[in-house]
Design brief:
- By secondary structure, the chain is of the alpha/beta class.
- It is built from 21 helices and 29 strands.
- Strands 12-27-28-29-25-26-13 form a seven-stranded mixed sheet, with helices on one face.
- Strand 27 and strand 28 form a beta hairpin.
- The longest helix is centred in the last third of the chain and has 25 residues.
- It is flat, with a radius of gyration of 33 Å.
- Keywords: Aminoacyl-tRNA synthetase, ATP-binding, Cytoplasm, Ligase, Nucleotide-binding, Protein biosynthesis.
- Its EC number is 6.1.1.18.
- Pfam families: tRNA-synt_1c, tRNA-synt_1c_C, tRNA-synt_1c_C2.
- This is Glutamine--tRNA ligase.
């Protein structure tokens, strides 16, 4: 049977075209060039998989090169972490290189450019240089130092190198074209003075090359054939080529830059600066906090290298930016862990269950399958006794018909064990249930082959024998942000979208087979999700991290919130039509509670804007959300949309809409001033007593 050949992505097609046009395959060389100013994150994983994947596909070397040209932000810690992440992902580099290896060569090339008249020392302030550079629509002008003599430039550059000048006093600039439509070509900086200790060269250098100069020249030194960057470097390509043209020799390979769309993942931030802020302000517990999108954080959370590689393969390589749903990453993880993670039983919110007709001192070791997806995983023994822990949510004293767990008078199966029936409960003084008493069917043991064992019951519960249970610390991790795009909203700090429930620590109980677990081991807690043994685990203390649930809770929550808003909008119609004042008040209270329960900021904003139209009920809905949601403020709505909402609402035939619009304006001082005239006109013509009273109270 023939199989369809996998199509090439556009970078592979570029390489195929290069080879077809005569480029020697043995000259193919790639690199992964991180700046050691932070830990790698999931966005870097795409670039890693792309570059090293090309190396594997074409049997070509891939260098790991650290572009360490800014000692103010770079540390050896980051270098070590990057190397560890790459090896964990399953990739090996041909050579370990550093831009700092080339500092002397880069300096020599800069001197050559000064002598050739294509570089000069500028002594302007950074503010003056910015003004002199112009704008995207206005060409720049030559600065006062652009035509310094070669001799003066060489003397000053030597002085910069020797540490004779303060930081910010002089820079070396390339002499290109101050009128170029590409602002990056308007005499870009090549070197700046930095009296900083470098993690590799110590205090040998007082000047450091700029990234745009060092990056392409480093590619040239290493004879990289295809320099693959993300789309933000498209405008840098012209400068990349210009710098290469100053040093290129015909006998060598001239690198070419190609750009692909970087990975944008919702419900997270990818900016190293913002990730560093989370670490420095102790919002998270370090770069490897399991809530972080760093590779080390994902690894500690329990992600597998295979799942991340699969994720990068699925999203592919494209030329256009798009946003990938975090759920896809979690899907890849579940797919992998489902095949490899042993199944065990754990209880995280325990309540005591007593089997009243089970012998007091009896103890059984029951057979349990380790992983039904893996025939070679085998079986283990789990202890069973009279007193067990089950999940508190798995019991209701008085349950509805569709509750398929344990309740009084109903039967369920205990996983790998017996069928039990709820008989009674014991409560404390506050009427909280402290014990559940059940009876068991002795003939119903799982796998016994008896008629009773094959009896069908409503549900199956996991459990742990109390006298055999191991107490553990379980860290329940969730997404760090509650908004899809936390750093994309104008005038909003991304920290405003932190998920207050991103970490909850609970006491759990697990079966005794987990007594000797080691850091990094992964398990499926049956019915609860996948969990990873944290590095904080020590003798006498087991710590588990929740890696991911069995189902996509966020997708479910998102759908629930969307459906809730849709249903709430229908309630608006009922509210408007309701004649009885008490009933109307009840409906309105329900609407307001629904609005307050919505966490998704983007969904709220979209709903407000979508309902700004010439329809009284829609305008009422928008105003209610704006008034009652604590997730949005008037400044979060675009000015044009907000103006339209106020204008249409004040003209609405429905008094409730006008009242809410006036209330919202009172909380929006900027627009209140702008709408004073319209409010005064409304006051003159208003017939509704409540609206009129409200307008009179405004004293306009």
């Amino acid at each position: 049977m023939s199989t369809e050949e996998k199509s090439l992505h556009f970078i592979e097609q570029i390489i195929e075209d290069s080879l077809s046009n005569g480029f020697p395959q043995d000259k193919l060389r790639f690199r992964f060039p991180p700046e050691p100013n932070g830990y790698l994150h999931i966005g870097h994983a795409k670039s890693i998989c792309l570059n090293f994947g090309l190396g594997l596909k074409y049997n070509a070397p891939v260098n790991l090169r650290f572009d360490d040209t800014n000692p103010a932000k770079e540390e050896q810690e980051y270098v070590d972490a990057i190397k560890e992440d790459l090896q964990w992902l399953g990739f090996n580099w041909a050579e370990e290189r550093y831009a700092s290896d080339y500092f002397q060569q880069l300096y020599d090339w800069a001197v050559k450019m000064i002598k050739n008249g294509t570089a000069y020392i500028d002594s302007q302030s950074s503010e003056d240089m910015a003004a002199q550079k112009g704008t995207p629509t206005q060409p720049g002008v030559d600065g006062p130092f652009r035509n310094r003599s070669v001799e003066e430039n060489l003397t000053l550059f030597e002085g910069m190198k020797n540490g004779d000048f303060e930081e910010g006093s002089h820079v070396l600039r390339a002499k290109i074209d101050m009128t170029s439509t590409n602002m990056l070509m308007r005499d870009p900086l090549m070197y700046r003075v930095l009296h900083r200790h470098h993690h590799r060269t110590g205090n040998d250098w007082k000047i450091y090359p700029m990234y745009d100069f060092a990056h392409g020249e480093s590619d040239y030194i290493e004879q990289i054939s295809h320099s693959i960057c993300t789309l933000e470097f498209v405008m840098h390509r012209e400068l990349y080529n210009w710098f290469l043209d100053q040093i290129y020799e015909d006998s060598k390979v001239k690198p070419h830059q190609y750009e692909f769309a970087r990975l944008n993942l919702n419900y997270t931030v990818m900016s190293k600066r913002k990730l560093l802020q989370l670490v420095q302000e102790n919002i998270v517990n370090g770069w490897d906090d399991p809530r972080m999108p760093t590779i080390s954080g994902l690894r500690r959370r329990g992600y597998t290298a295979a799942s991340i590689r699969k994720f990068c393969e699925i999203i592919g390589v494209a030329k256009r930016e798009n946003i990938i749903d975090f759920s896809l990453l979690e899907f890849c993880l579940r797919e992998d862990l489902n095949k490899t993670a042993p199944r065990v039983m754990a209880v995280l919110d325990s309540i005591k269950l007593v089997i009243t007709n089970y012998p007091e001192d009896k103890e059984e070791w029951l057979e349990a399958e380790n992983n039904q997806e893996d025939e070679s995983a085998g079986f283990r023994k789990v202890p069973f006794s009279k007193e067990l822990f089950i999940e508190r949510e798995d019991f209701l004293e008085d349950a509805p018909a569709k509750f398929f767990r344990l309740s009084l008078g109903r039967e369920v199966r205990l996983k790998n064990a017996y069928i039990i029936k709820g008989e009674s409960v014991i409560k404390d003084a506050a009427e909280n249930i402290t014990e559940i008493h059940v009876t068991y069917d002795e003939d119903s043991r799982s796998g016994s082959g008896s008629e009773a064992s094959q009896r069908k019951v409503a549900g199956t519960l996991h459990w742990v024998s109390i006298k055999h249970a191991l107490e553990t610390e379980v860290r329940l991790y969730d997404r760090l942000f509650i908004d899809e795009a936390p750093d994309s909203h104008k005038e909003k700090n991304f920290l405003e979208f932190m998920n207050p429930s991103s970490l909850q620590i609970v006491k759990g109980f697990v079966e005794p087979s987990l007594a000797t677990v080691q850091s990094g081991e992964k398990f499926q807690f049956q019915r609860l999700g996948y969990f990873n043994v944290d590095k904080d685990t020590a003798e006498g203390k087991i710590v588990f991290n929740k890696t991911v649930g069995l189902k996509d809770a966020w997708e479910e929550k998102g759908k629930k919130e969307e459906n809730l808003l849709m249903n709430t909008q229908k309630e608006i119609n009922k509210y408007v039509k309701e004649k009885d004042e008490n009933n109307a008040s009840l409906i309105l209270n329900s609407i307001v509670e629904n609005i307050k329960s919505i966490d998704n900021y983007s969904l709220i904003i979209q709903t407000i804007v979508k309902n700004i139209k010439n329809d009284n009920n829609s305008l009422l809905f928008s105003n209610l959300i704006l008034h009652h949601s604590d997730k949005v403020q008037v400044k979060d709505i675009e000015e044009e949309s907000l103006t339209k909402l106020y204008t249409m609402s004040l003209k609405s035939q429905m008094a409730a809409v006008r009242i809410l619009a006036i209330d919202n304006l009172q909380n929006d001082l900027n627009n209140f001033t702008l709408f004073k005239v319209q409010l005064s006109e409304l006051k003159t013509n208003e017939k509704n007593e409540k609206v009129l009273q409200l307008l009179n109270d405004l004293k306009i």
